[in-house]
Amino acid sequence: MKRIHIITLILIAAAIAYMLVTMSKDLTTYDTIASARQKQGKYVHLIAKLDRTKDIDYNPINDPNYLAFYAVDSLGGQTKVVYHSTKPPELEMSERIVLKGKMNGDTFECKEILLKCPSKYKDDPAQREKELKNKMQD
Amino acid sequence: MIYQGEHLWVGQLGHFFVLLSFIASLVATFSYFKATQAKLVEEHNSWKKLARISFIIETLSVLFTFVLLYLIIYNHYFEYEYARRHSSRSLPTKYLLSCFWEGQEGSFMLWNFWHCVLGLIVMSTAKKWEAPVMTIISLAQVFLASFVVGLYFFDVKIGSSPFVLVRNENPWAPIFQDPQYLQKYLRDGNGLNILLQNYWMVIHPPVIFLGFASTVVPFAFAMAGLWKKDYREWIKAALPWTLFSAAMLGVGIMMGAAWAYESLTFGGYWAWDPVENASLVPWLIMVAGVHIMLVNKSTGHSSKASFWFLFLAFLTLVYSTFLTRTGVLGDTSVHSFTGEGDSLFWHLITKMSLFSLLFIFLYFKNSKHIPVVKKEEEISSREFWMFVGALVFFISAAYITFYTSLPIVNKIFGTNKAIGEDPEYIYNRVMVLIAVIIGLLTAITQYLKYKGTPRDFWMKKVAVPTVIAALISLAISIFGKISYDKYGAGYLGAIHLALFASIYAVVANIAYIWSGLKGKLKAAGGSVAHIGFGLVLAAILITSSKKEVISINRTGIMIPGLTDPKGRPDNGLENITLIMGVPAPMGKYTVTYEGDTTLPNDEKLYFKVNYVRMDSATQKIKEQFTLYPDAFLVKGEEGRTQLSANPDSRHYWNKDIFTFVTSMPDPEAAKDTATFKNIVVRAGDTIYYSKGYILVNQIIEANKNSNKDLPLVDSAWLADVSVVSNDGMSYKANPALFAKGNSLIPKRDTVISQSLILQVDKTNNGIALGVKESNAVMKYITLKAFQFPFIGLLWLGVIIMTTGFFISMFRRFSAS
C-alpha cells in the first residue's frame, strides 16, 4: 500500500471516529410534549400546534424579548412555551410549529421556533383548493 | 362550455414544444450514442449530423417554451396555473423574471436552458470528444426535459408542465360553472413571494442554475474518457469546464449569501441551512476535482480519483435538488420546498441511480486498464499535498452531507434524530479546523514542485511570505480584539490559527505570483483564485467572530435559568423596543425611530431609524446617519397583518451597521376609536385640548395658478400651529390638505408626546382644524441591530477568487 493510501484511510477513519464520538452529543430527537416532560432539561425538538383557545402573551413595550403562548400536540399534550425574543409575525397563522428547546418544569423554554405556514407554501395542493373555493365569495 | 377571454394557443404551443424538446433529446442521445459506437467514418458522421440537428431542435424548443411561459406571465394570463400562482398585476416588471423561476417548473426550464447553451458550446468545441460527451449531456437533458412534460404514463405522472390551465387542474371548482370566470373571479394572481422581491432574486437564480447545469460537462468528459478508453487525454479537455463549473457554483452560492445578507433577517450571510449546504457540497467536491485533475495532468498520479471526484460532484448536485425540491427535508429547513412531492421524488431517484449505475459499470469495466503510476508520491512533491487537500475538502463535504441528510437517515432507518442545540457550532467547529489545514496547504503547496522539491529551495522561497503572514496575523490577533470565547479557549485558539492560515494563503500566493511566476498574470489564475479564497476564509473568520449585537437590551431584565450550551448565562436578549420619537441608547449610538414612509409603486413600509453617536466628552455629534429598514405588511387571515422585514445597512469600509425590524404593532389592531373634532379657525386663534392649547400661527392657502411649487396637486391648505402643553413644552405642527381633481388628500401631523393628531379640513364656513386626542398614537417598533466588521472583504474575496478561476479557465481552454 502506498503512503497516500494510508493517509487517505487514516483521515477517513479519523473523520468517522470523530463523528461517532461527537454524534451522541450533537444529535437530539423529535419528541412529543409528554415525552419531553420526561426529559427535563434536555434539548429536544417538539412538533406542535399553537393552542388558539389561549391568549398569546407578548407586549414589546414592556419587554420585547418575552413571548409566552400555549402549544398542543397531536397526542393531546399541552404546554406553556416561553421564548425570549420577538413574536414571529406569522405565529397566529401557523399550521404547525417546530419548537426547539428544553422542558423546564411545566414550561418549555424555547430557543428557536420554526413555523410552517400555509402562506409560505403556495405549492401546497390543499391550500390551493381552499383558495379557489373561496374565490366565488370574493 | 365556451369560456371567454382565454388564450389557449399559448399553452397549446407550449405543450407542443415541451414534448418536442423531450423527443428531440431522446433522439439526440440515441444518435450521439450510435455516433460514438460507429466504426466507420461515414457512419459516424451521418449519426453525428442527426444528433446535432436533434440537439439544435431541442435547444430551439426550450427557447420557445421559455418565451411562451414569459408571455403568459408578462401578459397576466391568469387562466394558466403558473401565472396565477406566481405573479400578480401589481408586480413591478423587473420582478416578472423572478416569477418565472419562483416555481419548480420555471426553475427546471432555466436549468434546461443553460444545459442547452452549454451543450451547444461543447458541440462546437469538443472535436473528437463531441459524440461521447454529448451522449451523456443529452441523456441528462432527457431527464431535464421530462421534469416539465407533465405526462401520465398509465397512472404515473412524469414531470409537471408549466402550461396547465387552472380549470383543468381543479375541474371541481364552482367558479368554472361560469363562462366568464376569468373576468369575474380570476382577475389577479397570488403574486410573488415577498422574500423574492429583491434584485438579487432576479440575477441569483440564473447564475446558480448555470452552475448547476455546468456540473454535467466535466462528468460527461470523465464518462467519455472511460468509454473511449482514453484515460488521460480527456482531462485536458475537461479541465476548463471543471474550472468553469467551480467558478459558477461559487458565484451562485455567494450571490445567494448576498441575498440572504441583504434581505433576510437571520442576521448574516450563511446559516448552515440545508438549502445552502446542498449547494456548497458540490462546489467543495468540484474544487477538489480541479486539483486532482491538475495532479493527474502533470504527473499521472491520482488517475482513478479524477473520475470519482467528477462523478461525485455531479451526483451530489442532483442529490441537492432531491433534498431541496421533494420536501424530504420537511421540518428541518426554513425554505425547503414542498410541491411535486412523490412524482419528483422517484424521478430524481431514477436519475441518480441511472447515472450512478452507468458510471460504476463503465468504471469497473475499465478500472484495470486505467494507468497507475507505480512510484510513490514524494512527501516533498506538490501532487502529494494537493491530493491531501482534495481529500480534506472531500471529508468536509461528507461531514456536511451527513448532517444535512439526517431526515433521509431517519426515513431509511426509522429513527427520529434531529440536529442538536447549536447546529452552527456543530458545523463551525469542524470547518474551522478544515480552514486551518486548507489555508496552510494553499499557502505552501504552490512553492512545491511536481515530483519532488529540494528542501533548501523550498525553505528559501517560502521563508519571506511565512514571516510576513505571521506578522500580519499576529497584529490582527493582538490588536483586532478577536475574543470570541463563547465556546472556550480551544475554539478561540482554532479561530486565531485559522486566521493565520488564511492570511498565510493570501500572502504566500501574492508572493508566488511575483517570485514563482515572475508576475505573469496570465499564468497566475491558480494563485489569484487562492488569494481570493484566502480572503474569503479570513473574512468569514473575522465577520463571524467579531459580529456584535448592538441592540442588546439593557432594560435590566435578567432571565434566570437561561444559559448557553456551555452553561453560562445567556444574554440572548437581542431586541430593543423603540417608541416613535423617543431616543434610546443602543451600544455607542443613540437611536430614534422617527416614523415610517411609503414610496409610490412600492408595497413596502420604510421605517426611518436615526443613529447618532456623540462624543461623550464634548457632546459633539461624531457620527450620524439614518437607516431605512423596511417591511412588507401582508394581510393575513382574520384581518391580521403580518410583517415580513428586510434589513438596511450602513456601509463603512471596515464594517456594516445592520438593522432590521422584528415587530411592530398591528396597524389594524391599533386603529383607534377617537374622532376628529373640527373647529373653523383663523390665524391667531387658540384651541384647547386636554393637556394644553394649540395656537394657530397662520393658515396658508395656495393653488397651482398662484404657486408653481405645487406640481402634483391643484390646491393646498396648510395650517402652521404651535402646540403648547401644560408642562410648558412647545411643539410645531403643520397639518395640510391637498386637492387634486375632485379628491381631497389630507396630510395629518402628529405630536407624539401629546398623543395629538391634527388635520386640516375644508368646510362651508372656511378652513377647519381637526384635533384628535388618541391613545393609539404611540407607535413603536422592535428592532435588532448588528455590527458586521469587514463584510466587504468577503465580497472582495469572492470577486478575486472568481477572477482567478476565469483566468485559469481561459488559459486551459486555449491550451486544450
Please provide a written account of the structure.
The complex is a heterodimer of chains A (138) and B (816). Chain A is an alpha+beta fold. A five-stranded mixed β-barrel of chain A has the order 2-4-5-7-6. Chain A is elongated, with a radius of gyration of 21 Å. The N and C termini of chain A lie far apart (75 Å). In chain B, strands 6, 7, 8, 9, 10 and 11 form a six-stranded antiparallel sheet that branches. In chain B, strand 17 and strand 18 form a beta hairpin. About 3% of the residues of chain B have low confidence. Chain B folds into five domains: 197 residues, no CATH class; 186 residues; 120 residues, no CATH class; 101 residues, no CATH class; 93 residues, no CATH class. In chain B, helix 4 crosses helix 5. The longest helix of chain B is centred in the first third of the chain and has 34 residues. Chains A and B meet through helix 1, strand 1, strand 2, strand 6 and strand 7 of A and helix 15, strand 3, strand 5 and strand 11 of B.
